[in-house]
What does this fold into?
Amino acid sequence: MSWLATLLVAVVTGVVSALASGFVTGLANGWYEVSKREGQAGFFVLSMGFLGFIGGLAVGLVVSRLVAGSASPEVGKALGISVGVVLLALAGIGVTSRLLADIPPGMDGEPLWLLVEVRFPARHPSPVEERREIRLTLGSVGRFSKGVRVRKEGVLWLDEARRDGETWVVPGAVEIFTSRGKRLLEVEVDDKPMIASLAPVPGHPGPKEREWSGWLSASDLTYRLRVRKKSEPIRREAYGPFEVETVVGDLFRIEPRDGLAMGANSQLRISHRGKPVEVEGATGRRFGRPFQGALSVMAVVASKPALLVHVPAEEDRGALHLVTEENGEVRSLFLCATGGRIDVSELTSDPGRLKASRSTSPAGWFDRVGLDHPGLYLLDGGMFVDGRVVLDTTRLAVYKVPEPKELSGGGWGAPLALSPDGRSFVRLVDRETPSLLVSDFVADRAYLLPIDRKRMRTLASTQVDGAWIGHHFAWKREDGTDVLAERPGFSPLPYRGEMRLQSGATRGPMTYALWGAGQELKKAIVDVLTAEVKAELLPAGPDPRVQLLRVEGRVVHVYAGTSDPALVDVSVEGGEAENALVSALATHIDAALATGKFDAMLRR
It folds into this structure.
C-alpha cells in the first residue's frame, strides 16, 4: 500500500472521526447542560470535532502502515479497521458520558418536580411563625457510597404553612434533576440540619408517584412526597374570586425575604371563578417562545379584590393591567407599558414604610405583600419605557405621572417624600446638576428644584432622603395645593461621608467615601485616624494612591483618586466581617468633618 493510499485512509478516518466527535459532543452538551450563550456550546462542538479529526488522522496513519506491512495490505481493510477503531472509541466515550451525566427523569416527555410537605412540631420558638430561613435540598447519593455527589436547592413556602393539630405543615418543591443514585432529602432551619432522609422515589417515577406518599419519619419531623410534571402548577392560591396557579420552569437563589430564599422563572395563570382570565394585549409569547400567563401578579388590598398583572406584550416588552371584578365579570384596565420588570414603590413620607416598600418582591411568586395595605403606589415600567402611573388602592384610581420633556429617558431615583395633601411626590434627579423632581399627578404637572451641593453640603445622592428634603425645603399652599420650595434661611448641615457597597451589591464589604481635594483630603483623614483611634502608619504599598494603616490589628486602606474632585475612600482588609470597623472609623471622620475645618477640601 502506497503512502498516497495511507494519507487517503488517514484523511477519510479523520473526517469520520470529526463528524462522530461533533455528534457525541452535541449529545453531551445536552446531558451536561453546556450553556449556549455567546456560542459556548457550538465552540465546544467545533473544538471536539477538530480534536476528533486530529485523533482520527493519527489512527488512520498508524493502522494503514500496520496493514501495509501485513500479508494482505489492502486499502479497504485499512480504512475499515481505522474507522471501526475510531467509532468504537467514540461509542465508549459517549456511553460513559451518558452514564455519568445527571439526566433528569421525565414523564410524558416532561421533566419533573418533587412536591414536598414537611410537618414541624408546633413548639416555640417556631421557625414557621418567626419566618426563619428554611432550606430544602435534594441530593444524589451513590449506590455504593454514603457521600452526597451533587445537590439541588428547592423551596419551602412559609406563607402557605397551615396548622394541623399540634404541628405546622409547610409545602414546598424541588426539581428532580437526575435519575442517578439514591435521593437524599434534606431540610435545614437557619443552616441547622433538621431532616436528612433517603426519599423513596425511584430513578424514573411513574403514575404511582403522582399520588401523595404516606407520612415518613425523619428525626422529630415527618414529610410526604408526590411528583408533578413541569407543565403543571406547583402552587394554587385563591384571592377573592380569583385563583393564581404558578407553573415554574426553574428556581434561583435570591436575598431571603420572610423565610423565602428562592425566586422562580414562572408563568402565573389566573382564573376567575374557574374560568381562565385573558388579559387584553398579552401576546402569549415571550422572547419568541410560547408563554401562557403573567410575568408577575400582585394582590391589591382594596375595597374589593383586585390584581396587578404584568403580562408580556409586543417586542418582548410588557404591559401592566389592573384586573378587577364588576358585577360578577372580569374587568381589565391597561395602566402602562413596561420593560422586563415592574417596580412598585409606596408614596409616603414615613421612612420606615418607604424603606419596606422598596424591598425585593418575591420573584416568580404571587405577591401578597407589596400592596398589602391601602395607599398610593408608584408603578414604574422602567427607564426606557414611557409608562409610570400612580395607583390609589383606596379608590382603585389611576393617575399618569407627569414628567418634564427634558428628562425623557429617566435618570431619577425612587420616591423620597409625599406632599401633605397627598397629590405630589418627590424624586431625585442625579445628573450633572442634581435636582428634585416634584410630580403633581392629580394636576398633571411637574417641576424641578435645583440642589446647590455647596450650600447644602451634599456629597452623595444617597444622602438626599426625606429628612434632608424637610431640612432644606418646605411645602406651602398655593391655589389650594401643596407646592415644594426651598427654605429661605436653612442652617447648613455638616458634611458627612457615604457608607457604600460595591455597585449593584446588596451585601458585602463596605467602604466609606468622600469627594474633594484628593491627596490633601487623604492626609487629613489619616491625621484624624492617627489622632482619634491611634492608627499606626505602615510602609507604602505598591499603589502610591493608597496609604496603609493598622487599626486594632487590621490593615486599613485610605485611597485617593487623581481626578479633581477626587474620590477618597476608607476600607479594611478582611471583607464583610470588617464592616463594623469601617462604620466606627466613619463615625470618627464624620465627627471631625462636623467641626467645619475641612470644608474647603470637600466638593463634588
User: Anything to note?
Assistant: Residues 216 and 539 are 63 Å apart (CA to CA). The chain has a mean pLDDT of 88. The helical segments are 3-31, 40-68, 75-100, 351-357, 453-456, 466-472, 518-532, 579-593. The chain is about 20% helix and 40% strand.
